[in-house]
Amino acid sequence: MTTPLIRRFARLFAPLFALLLIACGPAAAAERVERWGMHEIVLKGKDAGNPFIDLELTATFKRGAERYQPEGFYDGNGTYRVRFMPPSAGEWTWTTHSNHPDLDGKSGSLTVVEGTNKGPVRVANVHHFAHADGTPFRPFGTTIYEWAFQSEAKKRETLATLQKAPFNKARMLAVPPWKPRYIDGPDKLTQFPFVGTSRDDFDFSRFNPAYFHSLERDVKRLSDLGIQVDLILFRPYDKGQWGFDTTSDAVNQRFVRYMVARFAAFQNIWWSLANENSYIRHLTDEDFDRYFQIVQRYDPYGHLRSIHNADRIYDYNKPWVTHVSLQYYNAVKVFGVSPMLRDMYRKPIVHDEINYEGNSPSRWGQLSGEELTRRFWVALVGGAYATHGEVLENGWISGGGHLAGTSPERIGFLRKIVEAGPKGGLAPIDQLFVMNAAGQAGEYYLYYFSDDKPTAFPFVLPVKELRKGMKFKADIIDTWNMTVTPVPETFEIGEPPRYRVADVKNRVIALPGKPYMALRIQRVGDMPKSAPKQAPGAIVEEEL
Amino acid sequence: MTTPLIRRFARLFAPLFALLLIACGPAAAAERVERWGMHEIVLKGKDAGNPFIDLELTATFKRGAERYQPEGFYDGNGTYRVRFMPPSAGEWTWTTHSNHPDLDGKSGSLTVVEGTNKGPVRVANVHHFAHADGTPFRPFGTTIYEWAFQSEAKKRETLATLQKAPFNKARMLAVPPWKPRYIDGPDKLTQFPFVGTSRDDFDFSRFNPAYFHSLERDVKRLSDLGIQVDLILFRPYDKGQWGFDTTSDAVNQRFVRYMVARFAAFQNIWWSLANENSYIRHLTDEDFDRYFQIVQRYDPYGHLRSIHNADRIYDYNKPWVTHVSLQYYNAVKVFGVSPMLRDMYRKPIVHDEINYEGNSPSRWGQLSGEELTRRFWVALVGGAYATHGEVLENGWISGGGHLAGTSPERIGFLRKIVEAGPKGGLAPIDQLFVMNAAGQAGEYYLYYFSDDKPTAFPFVLPVKELRKGMKFKADIIDTWNMTVTPVPETFEIGEPPRYRVADVKNRVIALPGKPYMALRIQRVGDMPKSAPKQAPGAIVEEEL
To answer: Does one domain contain both B453 and B378?
Structure first.
């Protein structure tokens, strides 16, 4: 049986849901779906008992040797769904398996065609990311924790802002923080993953389909803008009000599995197990170990998985963590830390909270646009990535809306430079002795001078991969005024000594003595025949 | 049977060995031993076959409910030994167990008396160390990799230097690096743990007692100077010459167990599984996992265990690692990194290689005394520790000898300040926003200004644990000229606002505008009654 409440949700959100089906690709009836798009099997069946708890439903999708078996889920109102993100083009067949007689042994097929979809984002080249089709993906994220719980008008404003903004990843909460307006406001019926009628009465044994229809629509709308969703499953911000941060392990495990069943087929999902994990007082790292492993087991596509820390830092070395999602401001205030994190974790490093541009009374939201931009550059020349946030009067990090800060435009400028850089991403080159440069040894160097005000750069590079006769051009970059000024001369590598090598004429590049300057140096012309000087290939040298 | 070679060793080193027995505490015959001293059971038996491989020998030591079962070892020349470091005073009994009939079922007793021995060093207060008797131990280490393989005259010079130096820990290799003089020199018979007669002929199935007698004597001589030995079991510096870095897993495991059987009863041993681990090309982190677990299993006393990295950084979160022994120079060049490492590992952080004071052609040995001292201070005000090294003409880090640098005296000055500080050790207080201070919130603050040249310090402290009316005194510290100048005024805490609180009269401390200055601020007088302002107790604040 379904509660009157769920029926009411279903009626209320039928239009949105219809939209979702269209948006998410062909429904079960349809036969053609784009590669990495979404195919959905829709089944009708009795709903005796509590299908949110009792249901076992999977479908096996086959094409030649390829086999995927996503879990299905109950969507309320006698409707059951299994979602599939086809990873290759061609003919796929499917068969369902269920403990529910109405749902078992159904079968069908679909035709998957190549389209414009680049596929989900994966780790690539150890410290970087790429879409499944190989297209590099450089995360330039922003933070809009509560945007999915705002009015439709506010959401549209946020989407319009993101369409023009430089951000390609959004960190957002799956469960709202405790704020009275979410339980008392007009959108209360779509705010909570569990069925509830008041702040003291949530039924953690029943999911709320209307909430999921709304969230799925928002995830899809971000996908249409090319934005990855860093979806945060658990959060501490409950102030003891709704019990969402003190649910039992059984409820938590069921929640994680249900989220995976509903969202894993979305191409743009990243799993963030928690925000500020250590502030969820009743969950230990061992609890999160289990929830990570549930995501890993039930997500057939291996979407990215991480967790965001507060004081206690989760061990990102654990095998189910795909990348680092760090909150440690010091790591982007100074040069040289991101390279260390790369060597510790040998995974991509994303500084997902580096303080926000803003005028908040809280000191985590008091950065100038200059300082937030500077921290982005420090992260990038460390071979890492960073995430934006803003807390000016607009409260962007909470509700979204419009951006009022000065950093987004400069972050967009940085993004263009990085995307025009080495395909393999920026890597530290000699990070223990040249802390402010990254690139690709022998080919590309990006120096950043932070708030120093250098007036000259003697053309000297770390020796790695350099050989006599190599030629380089340089561009002077003003990261704040967003200008790129080519240096007229071409520079030529002399005889490499042990560590660093200068231009044959010891030329010096004049710099304007302003802060926030950068220098881009790229190889030009033919590769000379002479063998490269290899030492020091290692980060440090043997000592004895 | 024993080889003629071993007999020769035994004859040659009988005097040293006698010395060792005296030095290490009473032999089996004796009845009384100091708490945390060494008791040794000496047994005679046939040596058919290869007792280095075939022997099973342990002794069970009992006192009431206390039970220890160290492994014994074959010492050549028909002599077998079991060593015990008694952890409590009183009457202990022992019985031996062996697959060797001559050695099985022996028994005896010993009387353990309290003495001046503080016991082995353990982790204390999460990020710090203390002796087993509770006395805090602050590691101020130095590096003398090859000292134990030098002439006796050179060793005595090293010991005389250490007697006057400020260092209480020495990093040293258990196996020498490949250098011709070690295999060709007069001391060749005591240089190698395995029996060998030339550089191409080591028998990895037989240990070399003369080597162990010599190394044990040196470990004991450091113990007599109150110096902990950070003993490095594996190292990459073999240049493909002796095969010591390509031995089989079976040989490596046997070597680790034999080292533990011989050295675990030394009060001053720390286990360092490797130096620059990733340069031992044929050993993976998984290999080191196994060797760590062997040490953990067979060392009855749980001496400290770590491993020292080169490029690839071992996961110090693993449960058998007791502390971090890091080589990452950037981490001590700038403020704010050690606190992050503390939060990542929740173990003591020891920066065991931060580059050396010296004039080496290699850039890891080109620091000024000023810069090495500065890096020590940066480490300590990050709540971590650091290790010294010197490569002036004397080549201290290799052979020991005498010290010629300017940093040791300043490191000794720093050590005195730290040892006079909070018993629980220095901890970051507000490390994401006040990166250059550590101490104990509400009681003790140590600010370090690095190479800045401040002329004033407005008396403002992070609010944590402060309450209105608290009074503080201050000392201006010149870390280079080693002076401590008390500030005449007493400062008084005003009404704490959200983050930081000033002196009631907004007093400012005048500073001399020189580099390498520090400021020590300590609470004086009675504790006021008013409740402390708690926020922000957490490192970061909740954001939503």
So the answer is: no
